[in-house]
Amino acid sequence: MSPLVIILALGVFVAIFGIALVYVSSLLGPRQPQSQMKLTPYECGLEGERREDTKISVNFYLTAILFILFDIEIIFMYPWAVAFGDYLSAGNGVYIFAVMAVFLAIFIFGLIWEIKSKALEWE
Amino acid sequence: MENSLLFYVLSTLIVLFSFGMLVAANPVFSALFLALTMVGLAGLFFHLEAYFIAGVQLIVYAGAVMVLFVMVLMLFDLKKEIAPFSRGTLAGFVKLVCAGALFGLIIGAAKHSTEMMMITPEQAASQSGYAVEMKALATLLFTKYLLAFEVLGVLLLLIAVGVVAVSRAKGGTHVRS
Amino acid sequence: MGQDVFEITINAVKMVAIFLLMVQLVPVLVWVERRGSAFIQNRFGPNRVGPLGLTQLLADAVKFLFKEEYIPNGANRLLFYGAPVMALVPGALAFGSLPLSMPIKIEPFSISILGMSIATTKAYTFAFQSFDIGIGIVFVLGVSSLGAYALLMAGWSSNNKYSLYGALRASAQMISYELALGLSLVGVLLLYNTFTFSEMINLQQGPLTINVMGAVKEISFLPNWGIFFQPLGAIILFSAMFAETNRLPFDLPEAEAELVAGYHTAYGGLKMLMFYIGEYGHMLVASGLMVTFYFGGYNLPLIDSAQVVEHFVGHGLSANAAAVMGALALFVVFLAKVLVFLWIFIWVRWSLPRFRYDQLMDLGWKTMLPWALANTIVTAVVILVLRNKWVH
Amino acid sequence: MFALEGLKYVGLNHYLVLSGILFTIGMLAVLLRRNLIVILMGVELMLNAVNLSFVAFSHFSANINGQLMVFFVMTVAAAEAGVGLALAVTLFKTFREVNIRLFEQLKG
Fold first, then answer.
1. I need a labelling partner for C62 at 20 to 30 A (CA). Which of B141, C18, C372, D43 fits?
2. Is D4's pLDDT higher than 60?
3. What is the tally of structural domains in chain A?
């Protein structure tokens, strides 16, 4: 049996399990008339503030973009690491190491540049 | 039997999710639908015995690129879009016709080309686990496509530099100020 | 056809049982966490309901079940309900792919009633995991990176700025530490040259073996575990796991002083409990990965899994019964190892203070990522020098 | 004659048709939607459709080159998404929206 079938089935099962839990808890909970004040978003007792005014730092998405770029570079290392042993026993270890050394040099340069450029500074 | 059933289930899900991405008025829902599409495509890649590619699809697309999309949409925090679809009946009609014609062309080309290639099921059945696939992939990547591999490293570095430059350019360090 | 039905039944039962095992470990862990924190802080902790307070959790679950439904104004209902469900999925899928014990090889035997043989079973290998997926590590990484959606959905749909900040912080932190995590895994891959968990575990059997330029050296009193080859990688991986699970000292998303309760501020009752199940599931997967990569998986130190089965055969069991008993014994060993790591998770949580957010990001990008990189390079160089065939 | 026999065995054609459908949906998203980010998502979907056909070809002709191409396409697509979103954020900081109506306000 293909693992894909089991993964799909497990995903569906967990989703149904979760939906059932949410549904049961909403069914069993007491129902009271809810005041408008209670339904306002939590705000430490102050009058609810419009969320549109909140400031959000650009750093969040900058971090996310840099993450994607470095993540792909790391994923390129996976086939390399798995094939490393084969190349070693074939006597081509130096070649495969040099290939990745060049790539890693670019990676390290990028990382140093990002740190030096203060793109990762949070204030 | 199990094979074709899996394909039909997955492809139906994928088409539904991608259609949801097209029609959802709220861009956050669009992004979540597209993330589901990516997960479904990863499943299809797995089904096609491209195991490592399926994993990379999960990590890169579903786990990184779409998270970035969702995050940026949440940074903007657009509650409702003003005009999610483009206006103009005539223009819309023309666009739909264009897309339909493109679809017809693709299908026609697919039919034509596969008739020429004559691929038989017997040929397709010869596959051998993930380990062989991985090693073949690595060998190709580090010999035949070595230059492309190193250039991609440089490309990623350049993009990183460019993104930092662009996001610093104008308008301060916060999305809303 | 009969074989198909058998296969489907076995797989379905396994799938449900392993998922329920994960869910059932959560109350136990909550109890350990509460009693453990009380022990560390010189308090009593829950000790009134049942022996040692063990049934406190049952009482809590019932209480959660009967909590009032609350949805803040302006919340997006679909995502608000969907987020806790989504929080369960990554942990469950990742946990299903971990081998919990050695596969049981059942040899053909005949079923007989009153001396008459009515059926002979076929040989069957029962894998002690929901599904055996070849690309184990890549699958687990990919699935657990989907965890960010649950946080983002919860934070965005609650229509509350604390939730949104918490969600953004949590997801930025998760992805930052995913880099260090992914990079420290390269060392593991270099060591074992495989993605498959069961192959890694098999490679860690026996005494510590060091291969120096073709000369094999054995150290007979130490097991052949990954920790002796990858100590730095193990430390980085484990710390990154803390950040991935959003636990102290990395629990900035729910820093009470600043963000109320982070992305699940607006959640209560069973829905909040589901986020906790997701978090503990993540911890469980993290501990399982640590055990699999660095501590020999389900195997006892220095003892092969085949020897365990032989031991049971020596006690007069049939081959099939010995295989089952051996697998169960090794399952207990795996659970024990995992529980040690879970205890470390809890111990650290109640011992260390929280980081500041900029310190957290600095630690991820400027300390752990370079160290993981150094670990990769050093591992590659050492393996190259020791194992390369220098003369043709 | 067309229906059942063709549906039973799933071959290359089925994957190519699926890929075509996805490509068309992606293109429709680019043409019809007005949110810059949704347009970028349409582009991503189109790239994925192409990836699907690459993998399908690779599988049915037992040739690993297709998978490698997918690897490269993914890398470039992620880079494209990064730059596209950086530009979108910059536009948002200037115009306070990412609807492509804002291009009507541009004057050169």
1. C18
2. no
3. 1
Residue A121 lies in a domain: no
> Residue A60: inside a domain, yes or no?
yes
Q: Which residue shows structure tokens 């409990």?
A: C273
Assess D90–A contact: CB distance below 8 Å, yes or no: no
pTM, two decimal places = 0.89
pLDDT given for residue D2 in this prediction: 46
Pairwise pLDDT comparison (C106 vs B80), residue with the higher score = C106
A33 is a domain residue = yes
- In this prediction, residues C88-110 reach a mean pLDDT of 85
Cβ neighbours for A30, distance < 8 A, ≥ 6 positions apart:
C66, C68
Helix/strand/coil for C210? strand
Q: Do A56 and B137 touch (CB under 8 A)?
A: no
Instruction: Answer yes or no: is C373 within a domain.
Output: yes
Q: What is the pLDDT of residues B11-55, one digit of tens each?
A: 999 999 999 998 888 888 899 999 999 999 999 998 888 888 999
| Residue-wise pLDDT tens digits, C63-72 | 888 877 777 7
CA C196 vs CA C18, C200, C293, C331, D74: distances in Å: 19, 6, 11, 19, 24
Average pLDDT for C190-208: 87
Q: What does the pLDDT average to over D94-99?
A: 75
Terminal Cα distance for chain A, rounded: 53
Q: Is residue C333 part of a domain?
A: yes
C198 or C116, higher pLDDT: C198
Residue A85: domain span: 3-116
Among D41, D46, D48, which residue's Cα sits nearest to residue D88?
A: D41
In a domain, A73, yes or no: yes
Domain count, chain C: 1
CB pair distance less than 8 Å for D85 and A61: yes
Check pLDDT > 80 for residue B157.
Answer: yes
What φ, ψ does residue B48 adopt, rounded to 5°? -85, 10
Nearest beta carbon to residue D83 from set B114, B145, B163? B163
Strand partners, C356: none
A67-to-B67, C239, C375 alpha-carbon distances in Å: 11, 18, 19
Q: Domain D3-105, what fold?
A: Helix Hairpins (1.10.287)
Mean pLDDT on D28-34: 86
**Which residue type occupies C296?**
G
Which one is the CATH code of B1-85: 1.25.40.10, 1.20.120.1200, 3.40.50.880, 1.10.10.10?
A: 1.20.120.1200
Q: Domain coordinates of chain D in residue numbers?
A: 3-105
How high is the ipTM of this complex? Answer: 0.89
Q: State yes or no: chains C and D have 3 or more CB pairs below 8 A.
A: no
Give how far C7 is from chain A: nearest CA, Å: 8
- CATH number, residue A59: 1.20.58.1610
**Is-contact C386 C212, C-beta < 8 A?**
yes
Residue from C253, C148, B48, D65 nearest A71 by CA: C148
Q: Which residue from C64, C182, C193 is facing A71, i.e. has the nearest CB? A: C182
Q: Examine the pLDDT at B171 and tell me if it is beyond 60.
A: no
Measured between beta carbons, the chain C residues lying within 8 angstroms of A82 are 189, 193-195
Neighbours of chain D (3+ CB pairs under 8 A): A, B
